[in-house]
Amino acid sequence: MVRDKEYNRFLVESIDPVVKNSHPLAKIKTICNTVAMVNRMRANKSHRNNRRSHHALVAARVSKCSNCSAPHRCHTVCMNCGYYNGRKVLDLAAKALKKTKATASK
Q1: In this structure, what are the phi and psi dihedrals at residue 86, rounded to the nearest 5 degrees?
Q2: In angstroms, what is the C-alpha Rg of the chain?
Q3: How far apart are CA 94 and CA 97, in angstroms?
Q4: How far is the C-alpha of 98 from the C-alpha of 53, rounded, in Å?
Q5: What is the DSSP letter of 13?
Q6: Could you tell me which residues come within 8 angstroms of residue 101 by beta carbon, excluding any fewer than 6 positions away?
Q7: What are the sequence ranges of the domains in the chain?
Q8: Whole-angstrom Cα distance, residue 11 to residue 32?
Q9: Does residue 93 contact residue 100 with C-beta atoms inside 8 Å?
Q10: Are 29 and 19 in contact (CB under 8 A)?
Q11: pTM for the complete prediction?
């Protein structure tokens, strides 16, 4: 439905009286009795891509366990043997036994 400029101005002024005295460069678009501002400072493709250049995901770093030579994430306990930095930190045998008891009791 096509509306003339006078009717659009009437709609804008009736919805928001501040728009009537707004800056002449502020562009206003009316669509079916709703007021939407037009973006004046649109970011071009280059600016958008430069902003997003830091959003890349980085793969997790993997190192080799000094005890069992299994791959594990850096600075974390090896989930294969329970060692970290040459010391036993987790008792995985006890953990597995506890888990089997819990599933057997259910």
Answers
A1: 85, 5
A2: 32
A3: 5
A4: 47
A5: H
A6: none
A7: 5-37, 62-105
A8: 10
A9: no
A10: no
A11: 0.44
